[in-house]
Write a structure and sequence with these properties.
- Helix content is 45%, strand content 14%.
- By secondary structure, the protein is of the alpha/beta class.
- The protein has a single domain, classed as HAD superfamily/HAD-like (Rossmann fold, 3-Layer(aba) Sandwich).
- It has a six-stranded parallel beta sheet. It has a two-stranded antiparallel sheet with strand order 4-5.
- α5 packs across α7.
- The radius of gyration is 18 Å and the shape is globular.
């Protein structure tokens, strides 16, 4: 089987984990992608939070720095609760507005990794179900999916109920953070993924639930403890 052009930017180990799935027939094939740090560098959900506060849309009139310090303290104390708090800050906003702002940010976001975008497109074109499983909120991840045209209807992100077009404040469970990612996959996808792509400890549980786990990281930074651990497990690591 000839290697597809969209796999050529990746290491031999990465390709060796992906290529066998392309030949599988007769069943669902599923690939799950974390978003922040995986499909793009940096964190689009956090950037969106800062934009919302700077625009006076959330935060109760506090400064960006004040809200950011609060957010970081909450994440330090409990990562998932901190992420949930950031999404709950949007309570009272119109979903139509949040969706519009998310599309605008996704269009302007400069940090997409072209090789990862092409990989997602290639897998989807090959008949693999491409899913997003992110600890950023659903609206911003869906906007990015729309922007690149992959997995638009297969987005699992942190979300809150919407009543009469207005966002609520109670985070829907299971929340797509750490073990909640694996729980969300089990609940809403219903099969163990063939491939999971992630970059951090926050992706560990869903990576352990996959037939093959693949790691992305920045090549211009020292390897994190997660990357070192992943390599010790034999998981392929792609540096960008």
């Amino acid at each position: 089987m000839q290697t597809p052009h969209w796999l050529t930017p990746f290491s031999l180990a990465f390709r060796a984990a992906i290529e066998p799935l392309l030949a599988v027939t007769g069943r669902r094939r599923v690939a799950c992608f974390d978003a922040d740090g995986t499909v793009w560098s940096d964190d689009i959900g956090e950037a969106f939070l800062r934009w919302l506060v700077a625009g006076g849309h959330v935060g109760g009139g506090r400064s960006v720095d004040a809200v950011w310090d609060d957010y970081e303290a909450r994440v330090e104390a409990n990562q998932c609760e901190g992420y949930g708090w950031a999404v709950a800050l949007m309570a009272g906003l119109a979903e139509a507005d949040v969706s519009l702002w998310a599309r605008q940010m996704a269009a302007a976001w400069p940090n997409y990794r072209p090789a990862m975008v092409d990989l997602m497109r290639g897998l989807e074109a090959a008949g693999v179900e491409v899913w997003w499983v992110s600890a950023s909120h659903r609206w911003i991840v869906r906007a990015a999916a729309q922007r690149i045209g992959v997995g638009v209807d297969r987005v699992l992100g942190v979300t809150v109920p919407v009543v009469d077009g207005i966002l609520g404040s109670e985070v829907v469970q299971p929340m797509t953070c750490r073990a909640g990612k694996a729980a969300a996959i089990a609940k809403w996808i219903g099969v163990a993924p063939d491939l999971v792509f992630g970059d951090s400890r926050g992706d560990l549980e869903m990576m352990e639930a996959a037939a093959a786990a693949l790691v992305t990281t920045r090549g211009d930074r020292p390897d994190s403890a997660f990357v070192v651990s992943a390599e010790a497990r034999g998981w392929p690591v792609q540096r960008f």
